[in-house]
Fold these 2 entries.
Entry 1:
Amino acid sequence: GHLVESGGGLVQPGGSLTLSCVAAGFTFSGAAFQWFRQAPGKEREHVATIYSTHTLTDYSASAKGRFTISRDNRKETVYLQMTNLKSEDTAVYYCHRMNYETWGQGTQVTVAS
């Protein structure tokens, strides 16, 4: 299977952005997904997780209250809605199929004025 992210870009501090991750090649509805991010010179870090049951989610401390992870099983797509973005959110964001070595290519998010 594979994952393809999109939706990154340049946004001003305080702005919003929604990332998408389209999956293919495996049974989407039974899978759990995560968003990670990696800033220059830093290790990749977990941002959010959504389990196969739509209501069960988990967030990092930095994402809680500002980011929302969701999924659409019909479209086989996972979303990360990001609000009140800060400069420290600047990173490449990756979609990951939990418990598998399946990663997307990443999408760049830059928060700057």
Entry 2:
Amino acid sequence: VQLVESGGALVQPGGSLRLSCAASGFTFSRYAMSWYRQAPGKEREVVAVISSRDGSTDYAASVKGRFTISRDNAKNMMYLQMNTLAPEDTAVYYCKVRFGGYDYWGQGTQVTVSS
């Protein structure tokens, strides 16, 4: 199982970013996928989850209405569209899959929101 995130950057408050997660080593379409983030000095927290089949989604209260999770099962890709970014969104963002009873994580991508 391999997960590779990309798309992190330095962005000004109010800006937007789109993160990507490329998945391999498992049948992507069969598994729910998640985005997490970890800010300096804080615990890792779930940001958004997307189901495997019907694409139903769920979001942390802090990002609801601003972030959109999506997936492309044909490309084995997951995305996180982040709008109206705020300094408190600064964190390393990770994608995760639970496969075979284990959690697999990518290496993370840094998102910094600052003027």
